[in-house]
Every structure is written in C-alpha cells, then in structure tokens.
Amino acid sequence: VAPQAxxxxxxxxxxxxxxxxxxxDIKSISSxxxxxxxxxxxxxxxxAAGSKKLEIIQLDKAGNRGLxxxxxxxxxxxxxxxxxxxxxxxxxxxxxxxxxxCEIGLPVTVGGTALAQTHQLPCATGTFSSSxxxxxxxxxxxxxxxxxxxxxxxxxVSVAIVKDTIAPVxxxxxxxxxxxxxxxxxxxxGA
Length: 191
Hints:
Strand content: over 45%
Structural class: mainly beta
Largest sheet: 5 strands, mixed
Shape: rod-shaped
C-alpha cells in the first residue's frame, strides 16, 4: 500500500543531461532532463484504485537503457467504521461506553469535547469498546471516533451526547412527613 490516486512526487538519481521518460499508471507528465544527477517531478496518478505501476527510463547516447520499475496499490477505500454506543443525543453521566465495529488491525481514535484526551483503542476482532470518563460541566458534548489506514484514508463518526449528572429535585408537600392517614389510599402532592 502506497500512494493513492492523486499527485505523486517522484525523485531520484540519474545520469546528468540525459532525458528521462515515464510510463505506466500516470498522466499529465512529460519527459524531463536529469540535472546534477538528480530529478524531481510531480505526476498525476490515474484515479482508479488498485495495482499501479511506474517505469522510469533513461537512454544514453550509445543506446544503453536504464530502467526502474515501481509498483504499488492505490487504496482509496476508507476503513469500515460504525458506532453502536453511545447513540446520538443520548444522556450520559460521568462515564459512557464507546463501542462499535472497526477495520481489524487499525487503531480506533476516540476524542472530542467530551474527553480530556484522545484515546487509542485496539481493533483486533472487528470491534472496539471502552468505558470513558466524560469531562466538564453538564451539557452538550461531542465524541469523535475515527480510523485511518496506511494510505491515509480516514473514516470518522461524530456522536453528540448530553452530559447530565444532576439528579431531579423532588419535594412532597402533602401529606407531611410521618403524618397519620386513615385510608389505604393517599394523595401525594409536591414539586
């Protein structure tokens, strides 16, 4: 896995004052000359994902041919990432479980305004899960879960949550505490 579709910086050493020719899965490139035993160009790689090949050719005045081949796989597919917990706009306390499905072998990064720091979770079996502390005062927060592969393709899921750590306040105004009642049924009132 190496450069994906897009621009590719190509550089190397060569024999000075001889032209270089490029062939393969590139476009928008022309011959260039070797200067001071060095060349550097930016090429546009063909857009489709999959196997790619580049050949760099240099011919000297006697007809001797120098050839370098370079092959790679253009990976344009983002990792398969989904979040099962927490659900969007859910109310959480001081901690919440973050879990979901992920691409095996790539770490899962968890961050956002809900957390004091970014966490790296393993994805060894296609799933991730961790209980995390939610920071700050009560209110709306965001948890951002992402995975990035070797080709820098990034999947990202943002989940809005609401931190709520304050219990409701209840009061009973009637009947008064420890009141004697005659019926088996009582009416409670309060706020």
